[in-house]
Each structure stands twice: as C-alpha cells, then as structure tokens.
C-alpha cells in the first residue's frame, strides 16, 4: 500500500501509520518555520516603504528614493526562481527537511545583518549595494522555503484533510506580516520621530536572530515527508527533476504561476509596503505611521482566519470552487480599497484592507493542497516551488513599484485599482483552465495517474 492510500493517515516506508501527534508536530513546525521566514521577508518590505528610501537612497531625491527602495523589494523576487530551482532539485533528491533548515538559516542571517548595516550617510554607496545583496539572499531563501513547507504539511496529511493541513504553512504568512508590522508599530511608540529613523527600525531585524533559533529547533524535530521516505526506500528519486519538470509539465508550471499571480499582486499592496507608504508619505496622505501599521497588523489577523477557512473549505467544496469564490470577492475588494484609504481615516483604511484579506485568504488557503495535487511525486518539490516563484514575479515582485509609479504619473489611485483587477482576471482564467484533483493519491506508485487529467479540457 502507498504512503498516500491510508485514509487514517500517511504510512511510513515500513508500513506503520504516522500518529496524530506526529502530524500535529509537523503542522506546528510548518507554521513556526514559515512565520519566521515571512516575518523576515515582510519586515524588509515594510521598512522599505517607511525608512529605507531616506536611509539608503536619499541622494536620488524623495520620490525616486522611494521607488528605488521598492525596487529592492521587487528585485529579490527575480532570485526566487534560483532558490526554487536549488531547493526543488535537492528537495526532490535528498529530502524536504534539510532544505527547509538551510532556507531558514539563510533568511535569518540576512535579516540580522540588515539590522546591523550602516546607512548611506555613514558608508556611502556601499550601503545600498550591501542592502541589495542581503535582499537577494532573502529572495533565494524565500524561493526555496515555500515548496518544502507545504509538502511537509500536505504529504503528512490524511487524504481528506489535505486542504486544512496545507493551510498551516499558509497561515505562517499572515502571522509573519502581523509580527513584522506589530514590531514596527511598537518601535514607533518606543522610538518616536527621529529615534525610529535612527535606531528603532533596526530592532525588529535584530530580533530575527532569536526567531532563527526557535525555528531551527522546531524544524530539526520533524520527521521527513513520508512520500519522500517512500521514494528514498525505492531509490526512485529523479536524477534531474527540473529537466523532467520543464520537459513534461512546462504549461502546468506556467498556469499554476498565473493562478498565484493575482493573489500575490494584491497581497503586496500591504505586505510590500505600498499602502503603508502611500498613507504615511507626505506626497500621499501624510498619516501617522503608528496607527497605519496597527491597521495592517489587525488585517493580518483577518487574513490568517480567512486563509485557515480557505484551507478547511476546500476540503469540503473543492480547491477550484474555493478559489473562484475568492477571485470574485477580490475583484470587488480592489475597487473598495482605495476609496476607503483615501478618506485619510485610519479606521476606514483598516476596513478597506480587511475586506481585501477575505478574498486573499480564500485564494491562498487552498494553494498548498492544490499545487501538491497538480504535480507528480518525482518532480513535486521542483514543480510547486518554481510555479510559486514565477507566480510571485508575475504578481507581487513589482506591484508596489508599479503602484507608486501609477500614482506619481496620474496623481490618482484609480489606475492601481484597474491594474489589480486585471491581475484578478488573469488568475481567474488560469484557475478555470486547471482541474480540481482533490483526493488524488500522492505516492510515487501513482505517477501515471498523477501525470494525466491535469487540465480542464482533458478527460480524466
């Protein structure tokens, strides 16, 4: 019997059923690990919108300095595919767990070093160059993180609860956003005004070192994925998984990437710091940063809840149906966001972001389980990682930069709303073109079944 055929839970290669305690430990470890990773990633994006323009790019002038700061956020996305290629290759060859430990340490080390980095006024042009290099390391780490985390969760899960288990690493993303913005908001209270610009912003970056230790300990205690254990025992690991992936499944990789692009573009309105910058910058609304950060922090809670609901719901009504509902809600929410933000009232700004998070959760919670069921076992790590990385480039990589450029060119946020709506339509169409494969066996002995019936126009 395959590791994925057991209704009560996955089997180890020796035939014993992994206990509920083991599965809970895996779920907890994936939440902790992704929280640490995305805390590090988002703390950078939030700081880019608030202080990096002034500290590292000031000679470029106020407007261009902000655009350059946002560009460093986006450029890191270009290196996500490299992280995904490396992690996918080694994750399909040596296992999911060691790759996850490496990505965690890489991300945390880069974040801690950013907290120690001198500014432009202290070391000149070397400051933005080093900042960019450290952000590139973050991008490589993020590209390798997601695929391993979701496969650890989904491949350990009972067949009928993959959506719920797959939502566990997903909720690490809003928790990371919550912690990142919460930490920055607290720092604005402890270090108001110039003190925040001088030193306060650094503390959340340095705090990453503590989080690395916690995440490392938790991840080292988790068992390897039972699907990979089975592949290892049978000595069936693909010799060149990425070559096989692109030779056999390139259209699938691109469609899966387009599915993610809309969610990522809209999500990076807050996770990429655009809304925070627009609301607080003197050329925007000029609001106080503290309350804006708290509003984003609160929206992280609703995003967490809706992501969890999305994972739970997709086990009941299907991955594809849950996604389509989410796209409709996002299509509405992108046109309510900026009218509420533009009131300059922090409560209404919070309402606008919260409305956005409902659709974001429904198009993010099911992603882990759906992606895992789309790709065959031998190339699954490579497939989910690379599709996710390409989707992030098409979606969120330059969304804050595009948003800022549109506002500077037109003096209005209307164009930003239409841009985001276009991304929703793109992802809606890509979703329609893929088949819901809920409950498909995930083990290596079901490769022929996993390799067909993927697209909506195909026969099962």
UniProtKB/TrEMBL annotation:
Main location: membrane
Compartments in which it is found: Cell membrane
GO CC, alphabetical: plasma membrane
Major facilitator superfamily (MFS) profile domain residues: 26-439
This protein's UniProt keywords: Cell membrane, Membrane, Transmembrane, Transmembrane helix, Transport
Coiled-coil blocks: none
Domain of life where this protein originates: Bacteria
Ranges annotated as spanning the membrane: 67-87, 99-117, 129-154, 175-193, 199-218, 249-271, 291-314, 321-340, 346-365, 377-396, 416-434
Membrane topology: Multi-pass membrane protein
Gene Ontology molecular functions: transmembrane transporter activity
Record PANTHER family: SHIKIMATE TRANSPORTER
UniProt-recorded name of the protein: MFS transporter
Taxonomic lineage from the root: Bacteria, Bacillati, Actinomycetota, Actinomycetes, Micrococcales
């Amino acid at each position: 019997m395959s590791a994925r055929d057991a209704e009560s839970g996955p089997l180890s290669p020796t035939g014993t059923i992994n206990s509920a305690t083991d599965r809970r430990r895996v779920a907890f470890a994936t939440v902790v690990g992704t929280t640490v990773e995305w805390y590090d990633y988002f703390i950078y994006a939030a700081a880019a919108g608030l202080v990096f323009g002034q500290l590292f790019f000031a000679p470029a002038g106020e407007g261009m300095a902000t655009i350059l700061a946002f560009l460093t956020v986006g450029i890191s996305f270009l290196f996500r595919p490299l992280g995904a290629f490396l992690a996918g290759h080694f994750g399909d060859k040596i296992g999911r767990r060691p790759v996850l430990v490496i990505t965690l340490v890489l991300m945390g080390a880069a974040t801690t070093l950013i907290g120690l980095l001198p500014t432009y006024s202290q070391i000149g042009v070397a400051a933005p160059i080093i900042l960019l290099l450290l952000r590139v390391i973050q991008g490589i780490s993020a590209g390798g993180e997601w695929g391993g985390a979701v496969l650890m969760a989904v491949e350990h899960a009972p067949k009928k609860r993959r959506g719920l288990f797959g939502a566990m690493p997903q909720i690490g993303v809003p928790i990371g956003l919550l912690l990142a913005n919460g930490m920055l908001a607290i720092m604005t209270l402890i270090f108001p005004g110039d003190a925040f610009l001088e030193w306060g912003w650094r503390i959340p970056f340095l705090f990453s070192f503590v989080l690395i230790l916690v995440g490392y300990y938790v991840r080292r205690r988790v068992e390897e994925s039972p699907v990979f254990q089975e592949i290892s025992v049978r000595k069936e690991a693909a010799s060149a998984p990425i070559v096989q992936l692109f030779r056999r499944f390139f259209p699938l990789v691109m469609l899966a990437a387009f599915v993610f692009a809309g969610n990522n573009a809209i999500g990076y309105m807050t996770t990429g710091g655009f809304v925070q910058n627009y609301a607080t910058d003197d050329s925007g609304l000029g609001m106080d940063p503290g309350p804006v950060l708290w509003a984003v922090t609160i929206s992280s809670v609703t995003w967490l809840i809706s992501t969890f609901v999305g994972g739970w719901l997709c086990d009941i009504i299907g991955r594809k149906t849950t996604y389509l509902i989410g796209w409709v809600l996002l299509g509405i929410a992108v046109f309510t966001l900026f009218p509420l933000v533009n009131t300059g009232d922090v409560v209404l700004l919070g309402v606008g972001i919260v409305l956005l998070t409902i659709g974001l959760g429904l198009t993010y919670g099911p992603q882990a389980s759906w992606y895992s069921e789309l790709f065959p076992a031998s190339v699954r790590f490579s497939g989910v990682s690379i599709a996710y990385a390409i989707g992030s480039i098409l979606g969120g990589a330059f969304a804050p930069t595009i948003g800022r450029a549109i506002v500077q060119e037109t003096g209005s946020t209307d164009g930003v709303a239409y841009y985001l709506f276009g991304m929703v339509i793109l992802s809606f169409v890509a979703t329609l073109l893929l088949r819901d494969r809920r409950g498909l066996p995930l083990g290596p002995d079901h490769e022929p079944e996993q390799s067909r019936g993927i697209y909506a126009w195909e026969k099962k």
